[in-house]
Hints:
By secondary structure, this protein is an all-alpha fold. The protein has one domain (2-83). Helix content is 94%, strand content 0%.
Amino acid sequence: MVQFEKEALDLERAVSDVAIETKEIEDSIAHFEERDLQMEKEWQQLIQLKNLIFIDQLTLLVNKSGAPKAGETIREEVIDVKTE
């Protein structure tokens, strides 16, 4: 009978240890999922910033090549005055 009680106690301890380890694993998984979600949000923010930089570069390029320079505008006005 003493042997049976010892085995039952050992089994209870083993089950308790497994329950503790299971809880630790579940906590680790939950933490991992939180970090994964945070990384996904940060990744989306990086993509948005990349797109904003691209738009800024494109806007700068269009404005730089399409807009007349101040000196060119003045020369055109001077030429128009002389021809009249």
